[in-house]
User: What shape does this take?
Amino acid sequence: MTTEKKSRKKKYPVTPEQTDKDKVEEPAQVYAFAAIAGGNDFMDAGLSRSMELLGIVLSFKPKKASAYDYITVIREGIYKESMDRLMKIAGLTSAEMASLVHTSDRTLRRYQDRHKLNPDQSERLIELARLYARGEEVFEDMALFREWMDTPLPALGHQTPKSFLDTSIGIDMLLKQLQRIEHGTYS
Assistant: This one.
């Protein structure tokens, strides 16, 4: 008694105009195409602009950089002078930045420009820089993005976007709001 196993590959309907090469049998083919088309380039472009906002000059070419290269930067620590630069660009006060990197304003003020922040603080700075780089891209102007950050939004429970900067999940929510704005969805 032999039983045939049913194929688990799902075949999608094909219209008469489509040829065999147009068929997609497995989602993996789509993912492979995205990787070939430069799936990591999007990440690199955003991260390299983030580094520019922080004033960090990378020793490798941004087009060839990977997320691992940025993890190295985080682990080594970012200098306080980079944080000061981002504060100026983002229009954040010292007290606001201290809250965002989970330390006291007094502690931040004591740091010298070449003081390296710890990995957690460095990672938060990169997250903030990525958000501000993305906001600048969507609004096509940093001043407009900063204004948006200070405006209470119905989509955020009538809170300002800036009030969500103290957590990674909050920053992710704001990145999703920016994506909605970019695609014309009300935010």
Notes: The CA atoms of residues 94 and 109 lie 8 Å apart. Confidence is low (pLDDT under 50) at residues 7-16, 21-43. DSSP finds nine helices and no strands in the chain. The first helix runs from residue 27 to 36.
